[in-house]
TrEMBL record:
<dbReference type="GO" id="GO:0071555">
    <property type="term" value="P:cell wall organization"/>
</dbReference>
<keyword id="KW-0961">Cell wall biogenesis/degradation</keyword>
<keyword id="KW-0378">Hydrolase</keyword>
<dbReference type="InterPro" id="IPR002502">
    <property type="entry name" value="Amidase_domain"/>
</dbReference>
<feature type="compositionally biased region" description="Gly residues">
    <location>
        <begin position="14"/>
        <end position="32"/>
    </location>
</feature>
<protein>
    <recommendedName>
        <fullName>N-acetylmuramoyl-L-alanine amidase</fullName>
        <ecNumber>3.5.1.28</ecNumber>
    </recommendedName>
</protein>
<feature type="compositionally biased region" description="Low complexity">
    <location>
        <begin position="1"/>
        <end position="13"/>
    </location>
</feature>
<dbReference type="GO" id="GO:0009253">
    <property type="term" value="P:peptidoglycan catabolic process"/>
</dbReference>
<dbReference type="GO" id="GO:0008745">
    <property type="term" value="F:N-acetylmuramoyl-L-alanine amidase activity"/>
</dbReference>
<dbReference type="Pfam" id="PF01510">
    <property type="entry name" value="Amidase_2"/>
</dbReference>
<dbReference type="InterPro" id="IPR051206">
    <property type="entry name" value="NAMLAA_amidase_2"/>
</dbReference>
<feature type="region of interest" description="Disordered">
    <location>
        <begin position="1"/>
        <end position="35"/>
    </location>
</feature>
<dbReference type="InterPro" id="IPR036505">
    <property type="entry name" value="Amidase/PGRP_sf"/>
</dbReference>
<feature type="domain" description="N-acetylmuramoyl-L-alanine amidase">
    <location>
        <begin position="96"/>
        <end position="227"/>
    </location>
</feature>
<dbReference type="GO" id="GO:0009254">
    <property type="term" value="P:peptidoglycan turnover"/>
</dbReference>
Length: 249
């Protein structure tokens, strides 16, 4: 979540306060990922036809693919309980906290956004299941290294506070507080690095600080996570090592 200026899960906001969804400037903040396009308009419905008439069939196909997943009641078939990271525990987020999609076919995935929950793993799970929270990340990594997945990677999680970045990224929360170095354990770093390496391998994302970023680096974000105690040099080094292992297997 990360610290936000407003507070709540998925990035700490620029402030303090314990508990995911309540205080600190971290984690996916309430409304942090709220999209403005949850309802489809008449103009949007005409995009595909207009593009086709103009002779831009590729544009029409892409736009129609995006619009299809915004139609009320449309949902790509899912395998119940399926996860994208082997060994992750599946706990479904409220559908109000993400948007059904078909990534990367309708939206390119080229970023991983690192968050801090500003609270316990249990509190983050609770707020991500709350339809009134209006924000959630794809994953939460616990202090013990265990991974909980709450939204499939193909769907758009409301975690970054920026619609474009929501559509193009995977959000990874980390249990803890931005102002406590003790939150970030060896087990957490190692497990999160494997998770991010797998995401980068699946979508061809370069493992560098332009593509693996903190919530604080999202344009327009009001969160400060993962904060000053997150060791970016260590993390990127671990992700690259794990990415190499993925390539060799």
């Amino acid at each position: 979540m990360g610290a936000t200026r407003k507070g709540t899960a998925t990035g700490a906001t620029r402030g303090t306060g314990p508990g995911a969804g309540k205080g600190g400037r971290g984690g996916a903040g309430a409304g942090a990922g709220k999209d403005a396009d949850r309802r489809i308009g008449r103009r949007a419905l005409l995009i595909g036809g207009a593009a086709a008439l103009a002779g831009t069939a590729a544009l029409a196909r892409d736009e129609l693919g995006r619009l299809w997943w915004r139609m009320p009641g449309v949902e790509k078939p899912r395998v119940q309980g399926a996860v994208d990271f082997r060994g992750a525990r599946w706990v479904a987020a409220s559908p109000a906290n993400f948007r059904w999609a078909d990534r990367p076919d309708d939206y390119t995935i080229d970023r991983v956004v690192v968050h801090v929950t500003q609270g316990s793993l249990a509190s983050a799970v609770k707020v991500f299941q709350d339809p009134g929270h209006r924000a959630a990340a794809h994953y939460i990594v616990g202090r013990d290294g265990r991974v909980t997945q709450m939204i499939r990677e193909l769907d758009v999680a409301f975690h970054a506070g920026n619609r474009e970045y929501n559509e193009r990224s995977v959000g990874v929360e980390h249990e803890g507080f931005v102002d406590r170095a003790s939150s970030f354990t060896d087990a957490m770093y190692a497990s999160s690095a494997r998770l991010t390496a797998g995401i980068c391998a699946r979508y061809g994302i370069p493992v560098d600080r332009d593509h693996v970023i903190g919530h604080v680096e999202v344009p327009g974000a009001d969160h400060t996570d993962p904060g000053p105690h997150w060791d970016w040099d260590r993390y990127i080094r671990l992700v690259r090592a794990a990415r190499g292992a993925v390539t060799r297997t």
